[in-house]
Queue: 2 jobs
Job 1
Amino acid sequence: MPFMIDSHCNLGKSELFKIEEDAESLKRKLELLGVSMAVVGPFGRELVVNTETGNRRVKEAISRHPSSFVGLAGANPWIQDSVDALKRHLLHAGLKGIKLNPTTQGFMANDEIAWPILEIAESLRVPVMIHSGTPVHSLPLSIADLAERFPNVTIIMAHMGYSDYFGDAIMAARRCKNIVLETSLMPVVGMIERAVREVGYDRILYGSSSPNGSMELELFKIEMVEITAREREAILGENAKRIFNMAGK
Amino acid sequence: MQRGSSTWQASDCDARDQQLIVDAHTHLYPNATEEDAAYNLLKSTGTTGGEAVVRLLDRFKIDKAVLFPPGLTSGANSALADAVKRYPDRLIGFGTVHPLWEPEPSRRLDEAFSLGIRGLKIHPWLQGITLSEGTQRRFEELFNQAARLRMPVIFHSGTPPDTQCLQYSVLAEMFPDMNLIYGHMGLGYFWRDAIRSAKIHDNVYLETSGIQYPNAIREALDTVGADKVIFGSDMPYLHPAVEMKKISILKLPQDELEKVMASNILSLIPE
């Protein structure tokens, strides 16, 4: 079994499906499916308004299971306090990256409202995960525009374009070497094969968007991708280790 | 570069225990190039056209498939009809007619029916059809004829701005004798609208290919019942093993599985 990292998991309550995920339920899923670690972040309400509740939840999870979880800090660019809190979370609480969702937070991905957050990411050398694929706020080419403005920040394009924007996601990643594609909730196996050919296997991350997405299904999707064993291992774990700076894990 | 072959096994899918699997969403492809998402699946068959589709059905243990034409106007229906005639036990043809570009669309549909085609596929996004309210009357001739011939109409759904499920809901209301199948059940953006629409309208069915959330299919089953949910794979564009896995994850009881995997779609197809 290769070393596997689920690079996109959520903690808290899903308003979408009225389900909840806590550190223990997520850890059980990882164990059941043989996944070694998960990158966890806040989502839903706790990424949009109650960001500090969400960040506290993430910090508690990683302090309880430091060998299972790596944490991302949520911030809403409209809420100055949440932006101010970022440095504290990243410098002193061990969180390894930042999470944004332009659709639910309500800003165009390339709008300057988010630049202060990208500047923090640049100064602290942490990646930023951005929801992609929902028109109008989260279009891959808007994210590419942001990525071009911050070439030193690694931008993880969550869902690599989601339902219908996978073609744009690949185009964005070809243009911007600092964009990494995350595979959750993107339904086309052949598009992952194309991304491996056109973007390169070292800039693709396996993720599940659990609990809204199914970890079992998302892992199965990666198994179905026709690539070499080395490429698959990179997508399933090695790339995340590098991108989230998990030396020694 | 050497590429590993797919590790899919028939045993990965609980649905294999079914006596019958009918895939309600497959495509007859013209030749796919390497940029095409369908490339690897098609290449694995070593052939093209209808034969490639049937090889894929064999590989993934699917008994029958509803097959769409390789084009956006009725000109593509004869290639589809040829494939269906060659494999009548495996393929069911759903043709297309462009409701706006083609003169006398109802006659085009009659011609398709006489070729053995038994349903209609409409893809407003790719066909460039605006569905916004006020324009639906322009489709009257075609959709009334589909209803008269009892041909179900499957619509691509889920991509804004012209394939949104609340727009299709208006069509469902305007053409109560036409059966509508929402291909992809609204995808990530509109699956809740799709479920609500199928709940309100007796003539609306939901097809599962492409929808990213097994939980959304679960919610559809809980809300509208197993009689209105139809399995489809969208192969060779999407991967049939992944699409079947999505259903098997739900661990449906046998009677529901039988409806979703086969009998619902078969019951909609005219003699």
Note: Chain B has one domain: 10-268.
Job 2
Amino acid sequence: MRLKDISINNLRRRKGKVFFLILGLTIGITTVVTLISITRMMNEDISKKLDEFGANILIIPRSDDLSISYGGMGIGGVAIDTQTLKDSDIPKIRQIEVRENISTISPKLIGVMDIEGKKVALMGIQFQEEIRLKKWWKIHGSIPKTREEVLLGNEVAVRLFKSTGETLPINGKPVRISGVLDETGSQDDFLIFGDLAFIQEAMKKPGALSLIEVSAFCNTCPIEEIVRQISKQLPHAKVTAIKQTLQTKMEALDHFKKFSVGISIIVLLIGSLIVFTNMMASVNERKREIGIFRAIGFRKSHVVRIIFLEALIVGLIAGIVGYLLGLGVSQVIGPMITGVKGGSLFIDPLLAIGAISLSSLIGILSSAYPAIHASKMDPTTALRAL
Amino acid sequence: MSLIEIKNLKKTYESGEECVLALTNLDLNIERGEFISVMGPSGSGKSTLLTILGGLNHPTEGEVVVDEIPIYKLPLEKLADFRREYLGFIFQSFQLIPYLTVIENVMLPLSITEKSNREQMKMAEEILERIGLKGKGKRLPDQLSGGEQERLAIARALVNSPPILLADEPTGNLDSKTGKEIMALFKTLNQDGQTIVMVTHNPENTAFSTQTIFLRDGRVEENGTKI
């Protein structure tokens, strides 16, 4: 027989009280796991919908000369031919510490050219990157697949009297119009989109970029941190966060996180109090028994170990049950609270270990005073019958 | 050198502003293999003497030396180790652990030793057989008769083979027939060399003791030695 057998047998004897003890702690752990899971659901939802919000970081050359406006943001240097952003800047963005949070990088070159006697704005883009950012684009025709194909904004197509399948002379070369955009209500309606390398060549600006749009999301760090890291990599550029829908969502998430922390602390404090009062009552009920242990040679540390072992067993059970219940509850009430449809059950070993450790820790810390109190009991007082 | 030497023992208790004298001027030597009975009216200091001998109650003055160890000079945790190695306690009202089985109750003092489960089990079964409780190891204490519970308390006290057995009113809760059986068991244990110190109210229980001490008001009134 070992001390653990005494602890286990005592817990078995007090089934009813132990049930409520475990229940109290389980409710606390369930609440914490539920709130953490719901917070993650919200985080993941924002992450998944990121592309719908478009780019959230704009990189432009550091210049005071703002001559062209794009999306409400000034684009410096375009009008005066200064080229401070280059293709070679893109790999540098991919080198920042939180690079795994970067979803899309879309470089652009903007310029004005004479086409069939009319001044038209052209934008060189990487189509595969651009369509990831602009999921709302509706194209009559298809996305350009070769360098000799372009996509026309709705307004510019009307101005040039062109439609899908026709050709257009750019820098003397005929290019095919693969598609025309439906009206977007944005600056895209006034642009001709061509392959970036082709437009760079046509404008005689090889490797040059007017701006870079970046779509990034970081669950654990603010967007400002990503902006700071990119700025460090590109000292010659001005990096700006576009605060829009995402910001509102992030703020809501931040409020929910703070609310979750507050609720978790309160519930865990109540759980600790339940453990404390239950263990204290148990120790007082067992005065005689503790007196017998001490009389037959148990050290104070042996008595403390018996109480702590009981607390640990209770904590482990409450931790496991609380984690599983928390997972279940978050799947049921998570979608109701967040509006996010419940996905597959995500079992995170770290959260499981964290929940079980937290529960065990609360069990032991809340039992510390009762355990020390028990070990200090005078055996002669405890054994009044002697 | 005696197994137990009690020198000029004095014990007082604080009760509010009053100081109650429990034991005073007590000198006593107990040799190995002796069977000491301590008698006296209630409040005479019998239980105080037993708890002081048991290393549970620090004396106000004087010294208790067991096997040349001045036990109250030991640090508290060492005193606990001393109790485990040297003493077997038989408490009034048996004081068994109700949620442990008979064999687990017997193994209780062994649970904090290095002994393996197998060794513990073997030692417990041997003592249960010797004490007359063979085959009842899996029962709970409340499934035993009063006499069996007393035997179980004796088995738990002896499982460690302690040099000294301390018993407080071992027949106090038993009918006279069972009480006689228990005293016969004590006699056998003593004949096998066990040193016993027993507190009792019942003069019949002193029949097998080698020395009987009568206490009154914390002093030794009479010290009768038999052969």
Note: The longest strand of chain A covers residues 102-115.
